[in-house]
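Anyone opening a protein record will find just a pair of labelled lines. With that in mind, the following record should read easily:
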Amino acid sequence: MLASLPPLLRGIVTSTLLGLNTLIGVALMVVPALVKLLVPVTSVRNLSTRMLNAIANRWVANNSAWIGAVNRARWDVQGVKGLHRRGWYRCRATTRAGSTSSCCSACCTAMCRC
């Protein structure tokens, strides 16, 4: 849907979506992060971690949705056999231009979303 918009309008819409998604995501993360920082109880910290991961996963899903609506990219993901869903992995993404970027992902499923 967004791919058919004129470039200027598409840029305005996608910038707005990215900005709103980031502002809302950060605002939602503040309380669980502060609780995790200030409360030294393991069960509370574990709950805060789960909440932060859920918020981060939703942020990534929202960004993936609007990026997918703008540009249908084909993914070539390799080497995911033997990875555990709750594990932490270093992922490397190579762009079409050949540059690379790395990130850490708490949730590596069929695709590593960074």
